[in-house]
Every structure is written in C-alpha cells, then in structure tokens.
Amino acid sequence: MKRELTKQEINHLYRYVNDKGVKYFDVQVELVDHIAAKIEERFHQNPAQSEAKIFDETLAAFAKNGFRQVVREKEKQVGRQYRRYFWQNFKSFFSWPKVFFTAVLTWILFEFLQRTNKSTLLTINDSILLPTLGIGFMYGMFLFFRNLNMPRKLSFTAYTSSGGAGIINAHFVVRAIIKYTLLDGAHYPFVAAFLLVLFFLMMVAALQAHEKLVSYGRTLYPQAFA
C-alpha cells in the first residue's frame, strides 16, 4: 500500500514553506502539493530508506532551488492575468452595448466643456485635488481592511496595479488634459472630452480587473475569505 502523508506531516510542510518566506496561501498550497507528491513518490521508490531522511533530503532539494523564485513567478503570472482582465474590460467599452454608454458619456462631456467658460474651467482645474484625494483614500482603506480581515493572504488579492494611489494621482492627468486642450490658448472640447472619457474608462477597467482577480482567488481558495 502506498504511503501517504498524514495531516500532521502536511501541516509541517505548510509551516516549513511559510518559514521560508512564502506568505501567499495559494503559493503555499501549490508548493506543499508538489513537495508532498515528491516525498510520497520517494517513499514508494525507497521503502527501506529512513522516512525522516527522505523528508529532509526532499525539503533541502526544494529549498536549494529557492522559494522566492516561485513566489516571483506567481506574482508575474498574476500580473499577466490582471493585464488580460484589464484589456478585456477596457475593450468591452467599445463593443455593443457598452459602446453606446461610451458615446453618450463623451457627447455629454463635450457639450458641457463646449458651453463652459474659461473661469469655470480654471475653478474646476484648481479644485479637483480634494475629491480625488478623498475617493482614492476611501478606496485604499477599503482594500486595506478587506485584506486585513482575510485569514490568509493570496497573491490575487495582494496584487494592486492602481488602487487608491492611482485614483489619488488621477488629478494630475485630468489637469494636464484640461490645461493643454481647453486652457493656455487652446480650445478643443471634443479632444478634451474624448481623452477624459478614455482615462475614466481606463481607471474603471483597472478597478474591475483587480476585483476580478479577487473573485478568481475567492473561487479557487474560499477558505482564505472565511
């Protein structure tokens, strides 16, 4: 009969990879599954060899290859998944039926900017910092407390490409668009409306991509959200 690891031995492997700096639960699961399978394989192939020695040699072999590299590869994988979600969400705003929303939003903003005088634009340009600071801070706190309340940390939920800091810094982009398309002697309300809507949709797509990562992590590892 094939020797399988006990629950106590599996827990020992979890403690081992955690002590080696692997803090993401999903990466721990993958590593422990791989290490356990290797140990059980060696148990079967070398029944006369000391089980303690097989444990030590197998763990030493994995530690030699380095767990940090595994974590970095996982982070790169999550980053690629995030970018895939981002472009899927962003492109959806230019396909039916969302393209109708994009067109209407651009038209409304164009009409507003075309009819707004320069003094009002200057006021808007000078007063957008506080709203973006407030929204960015609230969203950042939401992410912080959501991750804090998770019993286990996942690479999916730890990944943040924009988050609260991105929203806080959005006012720089908005001010630059207003300055170079509507102020300083320029008056291109349609260009301004198009660029502002484009940037807004990119921010929305970024936030949606992050939430999709969280949802994906919840599906695979619901125990991390218990």
TrEMBL record:
<feature type="transmembrane region" description="Helical">
    <location>
        <begin position="156"/>
        <end position="178"/>
    </location>
</feature>
<feature type="transmembrane region" description="Helical">
    <location>
        <begin position="93"/>
        <end position="110"/>
    </location>
</feature>
<keyword id="KW-0812">Transmembrane</keyword>
<keyword id="KW-0472">Membrane</keyword>
<protein>
    <submittedName>
        <fullName>Uncharacterized protein</fullName>
    </submittedName>
</protein>
<feature type="transmembrane region" description="Helical">
    <location>
        <begin position="190"/>
        <end position="209"/>
    </location>
</feature>
<feature type="transmembrane region" description="Helical">
    <location>
        <begin position="122"/>
        <end position="144"/>
    </location>
</feature>
<keyword id="KW-1133">Transmembrane helix</keyword>
